[in-house]
DNA sequence: TATGAAAGACTAACTAA
DNA sequence: TTAGTTAGTCTTTCATA
């Protein structure tokens, strides 16, 4: 991992469809070098996957979930990730323990998700923040 | 947005490099239809962007930043997104106002980021959570 | 690091609903 | 009028030297 790798990653993060030739021009190297490095980064799983960022609904939010102490976080996370509106589930350090990143049609749908989460016995409490604006690094 | 769109999105979310011909086979339509729909979804910003999921370091974290009331959030967010270790900057509702999603070499680097954030006058306080485990929906 | 071959995407003209 | 198809062309990627 050197600065050239980091530059390539940053370009791909903004637009993963940028042609290798264009990336090469931008970072001042050849198409082959960019291709080899992207292959290596993918191999090493520094690039976990090529994907799309979607906004199927109008509201994105973080739902922080406080979980009972003696609960299997992992099983709970597995359950949440099955919910259609959930993009990511993070198990985190700190008080709230599990964070959902969700993409909903409207705030009503966010509310439904919170209600569904709170209905589970393992869930002690929730804290929700709407994501008003996102910037990509 | 119909079921065909949703199928296409789900394939692209798993691997955004899947050729249109292959997606077409999988969902039972022609290459042209897949291409037209992906273009439409991109146009409508349901697909926000083609991107990569990366893990350059060993530690991912959420840094929640409490911002002084009369501060221009947008300018602050613009500054944070320039930091190399920052993947996303979210302006959120609630007390902390700005959330950074960071990808660092180690916890020391996370700590450096927190220090740099706290050095800014606009920043009143921070709260950090390490992301211990991530699931993708 | 070039260069030709292969794979994939795009254009545009056409068809069907 | 809109969505879908297809053949031909162009672009990008890949493998080889």
What's the topology here?
The structure is a homodimer of 137-residue chains.
Chain A: H1 3-14, H2 20-27, H3 31-43, E1 47-54, E2 59-67, H4 73-81, E3 86-92, E4 98-104, H5 107-118, E5 123-136
Antiparallel strand pairs in A: 2-4, 2-5, 3-4
Chain B binds a DNA duplex (17 and 17 nucleotides) through helix 3.
Key descriptive features of the protein:
homodimer; 137 residues; alpha+beta; Arc Repressor Mutant, subunit A; Alpha-Beta Plaits; 2 domains; four-stranded antiparallel sheet; 5 helices; 5 strands; 33% strand; DNA-binding
Structure write-up:
The structure is a homodimer of 137-residue chains. With 137 residues, the first copy, chain A, is an alpha+beta fold. Chain A folds into 2 domains: 3-43, Winged helix-like DNA-binding domain superfamily/Winged helix DNA-binding domain (Arc Repressor Mutant, subunit A, Orthogonal Bundle), CATH 1.10.10; 59-131, Lrp/AsnC effector binding domain/regulation of amino acid metabolism (RAM) domain (Alpha-Beta Plaits). The first copy, chain A, has helices spanning 3-14, 20-27, 31-43, 73-81, 107-118; strands at 47-54, 59-67, 86-92, 98-104, 123-136. Chain A has a 4-stranded antiparallel sheet with strand order 3-4-2-5, covered by helices on one side. In chain A, a hairpin with a 5-residue loop joins strand 3 (86-92) and strand 4. The two termini of chain A are 17 Å apart. The model of chain A has no long low-confidence stretch (mean pLDDT 92). Chains A and B meet through helix 1, strand 1, helix 4, strand 3 and strand 5 of A and helix 1, strand 1, helix 4, strand 3 and strand 5 of B. The structure holds a DNA duplex (17 and 17 nucleotides).
